[in-house]
Fold this protein.
Amino acid sequence: MSTASRPLLLALAASLALAGCRSDDPPASPDGAPRPDATIADAGPDAADVDADPGCQALASDYTPRDNGSAGDPWPACISDDNAYHPFNASISSIARVAAFEDMATLLFTGSPPSPQDFLDARALYLQASGLESRVSRREDEHYPPVTDGGGNVVACQNLTPTEVAANPERCVGPAVLAPIINDAFTVGQDGASTDLQRRIAAAQIEGALLWFFYVSNHKEATTCTTAAGDCDSSFAYYTGGDARDAGKGLARYVRALDVDTHDRIWDGILAVRCWRDLDNPTGVATDLTTRDLAIAQQDRASLRGVAQIVRDRTQTLAGLAAGDARTALWEMIRTLGAALDREATARDAATAALLRTELARTDVALVDTTQIITALDTIFPCS
């Protein structure tokens, strides 16, 4: 598959692999590190809505449970009209994965250089049975067509050879892009010979890669909910961590701290997906793909805005930092997570996306044009 985003994915994987290497070592791979303000503190109820655009309005087709229990939209009455998520299953395993991320954050994303022991402890959390690693290593991005064999049969990425996975980095984003970044970052971070900067970079890349994973997983599980209703629960959990609208763990914590309006719109999209599934054969296979696609598009549009807001905020922070380890490490987090936006950015505005792609491909933070990045994000992702 030839897409505009492929060069960025391949360049990202290659450059991240060099970012934390010691000059006297064999090419150690992707490493990552925290940013000064990437702390574990939860967004409070008064989190600043710094960039919400009051001119942005819900689409006429959007599900709007906050509007008088969905009375003002064209959707039929459904289980989500009370503005709460009602799970299909009593237990949602994805909640534990987001909880593991939060525990990892207390070790790695504090703004200080993590120690090798911090990386060892965080890696144990990452490798928990049926935990984050088990899903990152097989995650497929449903925005892209599935991989097929010579006979046209769909083949899951986890059943491909390493060469085949590498040839399909867009669809096989977990094993082809995210897992290598994370695994190599842990290798660098837990090495007692690594410098503080290398460990900062390693933590930043892990943070960016896992946030990217949560975004892709939120979309993937909503899509596969078509045949497995319980996957809607996982979609909900990969954004919220299982929390209610007025709280949030994982990706929701990051978004809500920056832009409550976008956080609420993501929640509306999650409830749209749950509403669709409630209306569409909830005990079997869904068949109303038109409504499904409306719901998933609503959720994804808002989620992309949320990711863009994180990248934008970190870029603003970068612009105010003096040259040094914190700035170098923060740039690696921005580059890693920013790559998640390239597909949609290219689809919306190819010319502006190319400018954004050029900046995110830079390996030297001293050459980065932060104004260009912020302007591009505001142009491409103005609304949720």
Q: What stands out?
A: The radius of gyration is 20 Å.
